[in-house]
Amino acid sequence: MSRKVETVLFFAATQQFVAQTCWRPLADVYRSRDGWVVKFELPGVGREDVQVTIQGCRLVVSGIRRDWILEQGCAYHAMEIPYGRFERTIELPCGMEPQRFQLEFRDGLLLVRVATEGEQR
Question: CA-to-CA distance for 65 and 104, rounded, in angstroms?
Answer without folding.
Answer: 17
